[in-house]
Amino acid sequence: MSGPLRIGMFGCGTVGGGVFEILTSRLQYLRSVGVDATVAAVCVRNTANPALKALLAGHATTVTSKYDDILEDPSINCVIELMGGVTDAKDVVFKAIAKNKHVITANKALIANFMPDLTALLAAHPSVRFGYEASVCGGIPIIHTLQSSYTGDGIQEIAGIMNGTTNYMLSKMEKEGASYDAVLKEAQDLGFAEANPSADVDGYDVQAKIAILAKLGFGCHVAPASIPTTGITRIKTIDFEYAKLMGATIKLLGIAKQSSADAISVFVSPVVVPTTNVIGTVHGASNIVNIVSANCINGAYVGQGAGRFPTANSVVNDVVRLAQSVVPVPAFGSTRNVAIQNDYEGRFYVRVRLADGLGIVRLIGTHAEEAGISIDSILQLPITDRNNVDTVVTTDLAKVSQVQRMCDALATLPFVQEIPLFLPIL
Amino acid sequence: MSGPLRIGMFGCGTVGGGVFEILTSRLQYLRSVGVDATVAAVCVRNTANPALKALLAGHATTVTSKYDDILEDPSINCVIELMGGVTDAKDVVFKAIAKNKHVITANKALIANFMPDLTALLAAHPSVRFGYEASVCGGIPIIHTLQSSYTGDGIQEIAGIMNGTTNYMLSKMEKEGASYDAVLKEAQDLGFAEANPSADVDGYDVQAKIAILAKLGFGCHVAPASIPTTGITRIKTIDFEYAKLMGATIKLLGIAKQSSADAISVFVSPVVVPTTNVIGTVHGASNIVNIVSANCINGAYVGQGAGRFPTANSVVNDVVRLAQSVVPVPAFGSTRNVAIQNDYEGRFYVRVRLADGLGIVRLIGTHAEEAGISIDSILQLPITDRNNVDTVVTTDLAKVSQVQRMCDALATLPFVQEIPLFLPIL
């Protein structure tokens, strides 16, 4: 055991409040299993917030708005960072480590973007333990599982639904045939989606998460901005109809997979997922991470991807591991020499919107052939408007650059109405 | 780190051979992450086994058939027990702990039946670490997850498909409409089911597993033999037809759930599972454990429940945690004062085989009422043979003793052809 933890918490809103509630309401039980953890101080912007006052009433926790009140306090040996962002939060986390305080954070953007710096800083401060279970998929213990259950295994693919907002939206579109715009508005009205929904719908949230999992699974730092990322904004209800024809559905996935013995591909995209695959069965705001590996063959971890208590529970798990001295080190696993292959390979679904006419199949075939792509099937649902026909082509194994080339070429044809949409098929 | 592990392995067949292969083939990588583990000796019945000789060729591992050659060897600091059974295996495990050797075992029967003795013995030998990840659900890291990810949470229900053989059989019956006898024979021909399939089909395998998970989840020892256990032998294809009518399927589950603030119910039974529940989507030989809890709401862990490398991987995970000193203690979690309520409550599916006639619904209703059961629905698929009609009654919340009483009473009626089958509904 590590001895008592005196925690300084930065940010005490939805998740932080949940952490405080769990640590205080389960105090007695936690002590009985060797976890002596007290939130000694919280640092928040508005120290007069009534909800905060209510939360802390009757507890000896001090409240401050000055970072250094915690960072310079030698009696505080653990920092929980729940501010978010990569500016002040970065300063807080880096300074806490430099001061030899343990750090627990839910900040995916900070970890994904500054992992090499964090690794170096942690190596220089070997007594510091760094927990970040809450940074990926809220209540699913995927960080700890990757840290501790695949050491003797060889991971081949990590694929997951890691954004509840978009999964809620896609599930609605599939189930109710609602349009993208309608489900986005509904998600915004319900508070699931932000007024500016870009982080979710453009895939940036997933980008940071898959970067973190790729490091744990394959040992290589992947800069989030370098990950080919496609969001869900171009998905239409017709795509679900075609997917259904294929015994599949559409899910926004982050994928990191071995592409050769010493290279991996990492990307974020809506993916056509067969409904027989466990990923295809996870609907609504739930998340799933599915891991394909040499020994375990297939393991899936399903749970709530966000929310006050699922996320707070993951933060508390880090507190417990810290108190019980069972935090795996190094925090980000081993580092291996692995190349990143952005031009990933797969089978693809390509939807072409066109005005119906003669010779179209021949022209699609010509452009596929010119891009070196072998066509697997051409699907056509009943046509209602001959000027706006959505036709779907599925390909055999091809590189994404080839598919991009074919789509760019098809877009120049007079009867093609818009740049074709392409999605990998799982 | 714990320093080098010198392992003595008892049993070196399917799983043991897999463990040896993983530890030797990944030796270099494991050392790079602080895992220095060598299988110094194996103890097997037939030391001349050619497959064993081939496996060990080129390695310094010694082979013996005498338990004490390992147990009395002070240079061996870790025992892996893969013999199975509760006779010799028990002697080996208990003596190893007494000799202050760490123990890793896949032996569910040993753990489930002797957990109180093991707990006491481990308390008397505090330096000993005890790993048993492989004892439940092969490749799913469920033991470690329960040990380390729910400390700040409050578990309300653990329910799982924990036997691949019966899940394979039930999946086949559902998908192909095959009879129980036909799928059992096929499973036996394929080597999935034993010549004497009782441990699987009568639910005893699941009984031991849910006893272990109940301890980790709820803190109370549950004697396996005390767990109400129903196997799959009475399930017929007609049950899948009725389940389908209910938007459900049938799965053999081990369930441990909170029945009141200080009591739990533990049972093993085929269960009617809605196909919208993630448990209902896991087919074939796969396993799943689904955990309902206060903070995380719902978490599901899916994977291979058996097989050489999935199971061996779990054994290796215990080796890794031991070498990295991140084994949670106490091994079986905290012990709490929780009552066991065998007379569990639920909604039930009751199938009554009868000869069609006048007044049947009234009589069923009378007997339900006499047992204090409120009927939710009566289902009737089209009748083909009026002398053998399968009718299904679903109940509102009732205790299993009430349902049993109703079934016993119905069985005495002249037109009822056999004791009605009842299954809980998830």
From TrEMBL, chains A, B:
- The top EC class is oxidoreductase
SUPFAM superfamilies, per database record: Glyceraldehyde-3-phosphate dehydrogenase-like, C-terminal domain (SSF55347), NAD(P)-binding Rossmann-fold domains (SSF51735)
Domain of life (superkingdom): Eukaryota
Keyword Amino-acid biosynthesis part of the UniProt annotation: yes
Which catalytic reaction applies to this protein? Answer: L-homoserine + NADP(+) = L-aspartate 4-semialdehyde + NADPH + H(+)
* Segments forming domain Homoserine dehydrogenase catalytic: 141-320
**Has UniProt tagged this entry with the keyword NADP?**
yes
The biological pathway it contributes to is:
Amino-acid biosynthesis; L-methionine biosynthesis via de novo pathway; L-homoserine from L-aspartate: step 3/3; Amino-acid biosynthesis; L-threonine biosynthesis; L-threonine from L-aspartate: step 3/5
Name a single GO biological process.
threonine biosynthetic process
What InterPro entries does the record point to? Asp/hSer_DH_NAD-bd, HDH, HDH_cat, HDH_CS, NAD(P)-bd_dom_sf
**Which keywords belong to this entry?**
Amino-acid biosynthesis, Methionine biosynthesis, NADP, Oxidoreductase, Threonine biosynthesis
MF (Gene Ontology): homoserine dehydrogenase activity; NADP binding
Question: What's a Pfam family this protein contains?
Answer: Homoserine_dh
| Enzyme Commission (EC) number | 1.1.1.3
Query: What positions does the domain Aspartate/homoserine dehydrogenase NAD-binding occupy?
Result: 11-118
The UniProt family comment states: Belongs to the homoserine dehydrogenase family.
Q: What is this protein called?
A: Homoserine dehydrogenase
